[in-house]
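Tokens in:
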């Protein structure tokens, strides 16, 4: 249905005069009359009773006023939404996040940006960091918050936060009350580590090797939460990002290491093949709010 015809109809319905409606629409009267005739033909009903002395709405015309008003308002809103999306100010944004990304500061950073983009409709999907790479390549998410370094060939990333790695010890460990602990002194200990794969797992192995040993790994867990819980019951020790201290898990002591300096990064990742203006706008703002730091 032609929105121009509906606008002509509403103008005549409000003025109850074709001439005044034409002036209001900045049109001559014949095109207005033609639009009304066209609309009546489409709907197969009369919308106005009219003669030389008066114009009045029929029952069908009265019913159409409300629906036409609603439809035109929706069309106007649709145009606004489309323009916002074109400018990257609104629309859908699919966000992947690692379990601990919110602890690491992704939530606070996104909320600060969200205030400037109130028309974005976002959905959050919990995914392991490696799973986010696959989801970005398959166009299942638009951006991801993941721990890096991480292999992500063909994708782009921007470091938004850097955190030190701490040594997690059971409270009963003989070094639990030391201010700092040498990682090299832990060579005989059993480690709790995440599942095998590129990313955090390989980083921990590399850090231990830089301290002069290969870690003995008898226990594995998917989440950092589970790793710390295993440490708390005394089955081993672990390396975890410093933000995990926010959980205040009982039975654990988190210690800085005196002989190695190790960090992990929180990065936002995206697929440059995704041409969404919303993605470009969000990434641009994150780059401004959190200037990039090189990955160690």
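Residues out:
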């Amino acid at each position: 249905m032609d929105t121009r015809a509906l606008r002509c109809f509403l103008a005549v319905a409000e003025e109850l005069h074709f001439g005044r409606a034409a002036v209001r629409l900045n049109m001559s009267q014949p095109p207005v009359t033609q639009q009304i005739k066209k609309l009546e033909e489409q709907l197969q009903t009369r919308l106005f009773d009219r003669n030389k002395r008066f114009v009045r709405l029929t029952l069908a015309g009265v019913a159409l006023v409300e629906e036409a008003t609603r439809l035109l308002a929706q069309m106007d809103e649709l145009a606004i939404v489309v323009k916002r999306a074109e400018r990257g100010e609104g629309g859908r944004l699919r966000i992947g996040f690692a379990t601990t990304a919110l602890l690491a500061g992704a939530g606070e950073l996104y909320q600060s940006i969200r205030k400037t983009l109130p028309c974005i409709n976002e959905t959050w999907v919990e995914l392991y960091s490696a799973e986010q790479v696959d989801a970005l390549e398959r166009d299942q998410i638009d951006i991801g918050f993941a721990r890096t370094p991480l292999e992500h060939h063909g994708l782009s990333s921007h470091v938004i936060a850097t955190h030190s790695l701490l040594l997690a010890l059971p409270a009963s460990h003989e070094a639990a009350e030391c201010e700092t602990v040498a990682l090299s002194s832990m060579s005989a200990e059993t480690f709790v580590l995440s599942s095998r794969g590129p990313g955090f797992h390989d980083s921990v192995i590399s850090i231990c090797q830089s301290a002069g040993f290969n870690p003995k790994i008898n226990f594995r867990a998917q989440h950092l939460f589970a790793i710390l819980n295993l440490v708390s019951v005394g089955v081993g020790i672990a390396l975890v990002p410093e933000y995990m201290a926010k959980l205040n898990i009982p039975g654990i002591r988190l210690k800085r290491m005196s002989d190695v300096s190790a960090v992990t990064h929180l990065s936002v990742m995206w697929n440059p093949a995704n041409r969404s203006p919303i993605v470009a706008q969000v990434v641009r703002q994150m780059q401004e709010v959190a200037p990039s730091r090189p990955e160690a």
